[in-house]
């Protein structure tokens, strides 16, 4: 079954959403992060996706205490990322209580190192994040908080990670992220063709229960839910119900 996963993006200790990854186009929400996490737990969430946006751009954890506070409640399993540049960062997040560490820039720039971490910590604890945008006829892979395109493409690295023993893959269509314009279902279908053994988490653009159903029917292992939940487009409980029905019909 496809798992809906609520997301909390942090900047300056606040819950925010960016529009297409643009730090200058930020919406700040009047939720205290730990209280919001508790609400998602009350609504049935088992996992929470947390991003330190400050860390994603600077390369240094700037919201680690908040992540640790959410994890310490014991009510949610946390996958967290933003600012992982070396193995010390992986250890610090795990020690803070994260169950999975999401690795973005390093996963693109130095996949061999991330493969080593997968071998050392386990394929269930390291999640490569290959966030992408379509440019010049191919899926580019920006890094450093989505501010700079790298030479490797999505089609280069997805099968590479499958062969290297990764289990999970998080992929955001940056042009859909925070837009409430609908997910790029074709992108996730493409990923399933490139690496059918990977459990892909789809992210970017989900706006409705129909979008959740479409991603579930496509076979995504997880659906990251950000702005849609924050703005009340639907409830987490309804997302779980829709995902379950779609899974049963496959």
TrEMBL record:
Pathway: Amino-acid biosynthesis; L-histidine biosynthesis; L-histidine from 5-phospho-alpha-D-ribose 1-diphosphate: step 4/9. Its main location: cytoplasm. InterPro entries: Aldolase_TIM (IPR013785), His_biosynth (IPR006062), HisA/PriA (IPR023016), Isoase_HisA-like (IPR044524), RibuloseP-bd_barrel (IPR011060). Its EC number is 5.3.1.16. It catalyses: 1-(5-phospho-beta-D-ribosyl)-5-[(5-phospho-beta-D-ribosylamino)methylideneamino]imidazole-4-carboxamide = 5-[(5-phospho-1-deoxy-D-ribulos-1-ylimino)methylamino]-1-(5-phospho-beta-D-ribosyl)imidazole-4-carboxamide. One of its GO terms (molecular function) is 1-(5-phosphoribosyl)-5-[(5-phosphoribosylamino)methylideneamino]imidazole-4-carboxamide isomerase activity. Keywords: Amino-acid biosynthesis, Cytoplasm, Histidine biosynthesis, Isomerase. The active site is at residues 9, 131. The keyword Transmembrane does not apply. PANTHER family: 1-(5-PHOSPHORIBOSYL)-5-[(5-PHOSPHORIBOSYLAMINO)METHYLIDENEAMINO] IMIDAZOLE-4-CARBOXAMIDE ISOMERASE. This is 1-(5-phosphoribosyl)-5-[(5-phosphoribosylamino)methylideneamino] imidazole-4-carboxamide isomerase. It comes from Luteibacter yeojuensis.
